[in-house]
Write a structure and sequence with these properties.
Layout (H helix, E strand, L loop, with lengths): L2 H4 L2 H13 L3 H14 L3 H7 L7 H12 L6 H13 L3 H14 L3 H13 L3 H11 L10
Helix pairs in contact: 2-3, 3-4, 4-6, 5-6, 6-7, 6-8, 7-8, 8-9
Amino acid sequence: MPETDRQNARIASEAARHFIRLGGCRQAHKILREALTRQWDAALVLAYGECQADDSLERLGDAEGWLKTRPRDAALLLTLGRLCKQRELWGKAQSYLEASLSEQPTRAAHVALARLLDSIGKPADAATHYRAAADEGLAPEPR
């Protein structure tokens, strides 16, 4: 891919999503990481946490590094919550997801937190977040 295309966040996002669909998570993560170093973009950050692969610890380290300069970024906090859930770091995942919701309540963050709460045996708390996710006033993803 030409360098100018690789620097375009939209093209990088689409390329990564195609790799993810084809099971090429590591290649997708590389594309996203490179794109994020050039241009910060919420869609790229969210995609970085989508595909489950054996590099989740590395991605978690990258994302926690980004958090130092973007501590209130709702998309980054949501991605961190998803990555922590993949590593079964339940408490950290819950903290990141709650922080994402406090910055920007979105359906995606409520659903992620509800699924986490379900998986750790808190169905009543999960139901609260499932109901909140159904709220029509919420954005689907952080911006």
